[in-house]
Structure to design on (365 residues):
């Protein structure tokens, strides 16, 4: 079992990574000051596969488990689902000490975390992520949220979990699309922070795509280490944490405009990363050969690089103004300055962004 520590004073916690760690949920949780009842939030597919194991692990440790199922899909990351979970928590008599445990991918984790942050002004929160994307990204760092018709993740909080358990065994049941989606965030860490990891991915992507346990454990550990260091420096995204948003400025716009579900989060982020790399080259920040390496790695991971033909550049531009990084009506962009280094550019003019979007359409080269 590997252990990545995230140091945030009295909000510090451990991320345990390895085959079978979800069976240790009860033991690891009893080491923390939490109550004897837990709300286990999951979706029907994940429940069928893993809820009995997690329930057994918690029960062995003397914790009563109340299960709550949320249908799978980004559209259920909504205030209505949160209300349903509050009702379930009240009905089960959960008090301020009782943890909310998220078992599933990013939707379950973000929603359950939002409920944990707000039910009785905050109860302990445990993340048991079962997708690659959730293990490398969304379960770590404390961004919890629900969506609103005006934007993705637009209603939320920073609320750290007390424990993260990433069981690599759960990745064996993922579809290829879910693996791809997680890889977009994995590649992001190489681009923004870790050139050696980017090169490792170039050399070892086939092992990762084959879901080899050692390769997966390495990818999760390196991703969590990179994310932990960024979050420790700037927990609430006052500045530098925004680099974790590479590819998301355009990505969130495409995800929403295409209709949630047509592009996975990772696919939309990959397209957004291609646009950011093009813009960085146009602005003289990134060398063209590095843009090629970024595009090649994303493409080898099976990720899309083109802005869809049925979504206009004007629509993407308009949607980007709703981004949480927009300040005083001006778009902020995260740009790769080299492989291993990203910069934050506030106050971007519209014209170069629109040109980069147009240059990332089918048949544009
Ligand atoms: O943890 C962060 O910070 C990130 O930006 C990670 C992103 O990959 C993640 O998708 C995040 O939820 C996006 O945040 P948002 O603030 O743009 O909604
Ligand atoms: Zn993301």
């Amino acid at each position: 079992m590997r252990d990545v520590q995230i140091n945030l004073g009295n909000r510090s916690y451990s991320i345990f990574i390895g085959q079978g760690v979800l069976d240790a949920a009860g033991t690891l949780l009893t080491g923390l000051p939490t109550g004897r009842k837990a709300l286990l939030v999951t979706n029907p597919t994940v429940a069928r596969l893993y809820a009995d194991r997690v329930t057994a692990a918690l029960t062995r440790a003397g914790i009563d488990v109340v299960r709550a199922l949320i249908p799978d899909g980004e559209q259920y990351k909504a205030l209505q689902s949160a209300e349903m979970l509050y009702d379930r928590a009240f009905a089960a008599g959960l008090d301020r000490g009782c943890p909310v445990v998220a078992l599933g991918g990013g939707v379950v984790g973000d929603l359950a975390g939002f409920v944990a942050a707000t039910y009785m002004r905050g109860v302990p929160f445990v993340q048991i992520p079962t997708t690659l994307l959730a293990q490398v990204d969304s379960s770590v760092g404390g961004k919890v949220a629900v969506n609103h018709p005006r934007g993705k993740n637009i209603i939320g909080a920073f609320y750290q979990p007390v424990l993260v358990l990433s069981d690599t065994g759960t990745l064996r049941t993922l579809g290829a699309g879910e693996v791809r989606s997680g890889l977009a965030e994995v590649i992001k860490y190489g681009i923004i922070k870790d050139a050696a990891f980017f090169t490792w991915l170039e050399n070892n992507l086939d092992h990762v795509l084959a879901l080899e346990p050692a390769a997966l454990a390495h990818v999760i550990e390196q991703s969590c280490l990179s994310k932990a260091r960024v979050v420790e420096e700037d927990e609430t995204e006052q500045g530098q944490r925004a680099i974790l948003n590479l590819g998301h400025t355009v990505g969130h716009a495409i995800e929403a405009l295409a209709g949630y579900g047509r592009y996975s989060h990772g696919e939309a982020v990959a397209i957004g990363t291609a646009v950011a790399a093009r813009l960085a080259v146009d602005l003289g920040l990134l060398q063209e050969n590095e843009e090629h390496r970024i595009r090649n790695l994303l493409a080898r991971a099976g990720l899309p690089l083109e802005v869809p033909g049925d979504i206009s550049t004007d629509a993407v531009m308009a949607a980007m103004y709703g981004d949480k990084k927009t300040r005083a009506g001006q778009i902020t962009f995260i740009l790769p300055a080299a492989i291993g280094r990203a910069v934050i550019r506030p106050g971007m003019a519209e014209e170069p962004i629109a040109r980069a979007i147009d240059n990332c359409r089918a048949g544009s080269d």
In short: Residues 213-233 form the longest helix (21 residues). Residues 137, 141, 143, 153, 185, 237, 241, 244-245, 248, 324 surround LNCXM5UN (ligand 1) (CB under 6 Å). The chain has a mean pLDDT of 95.
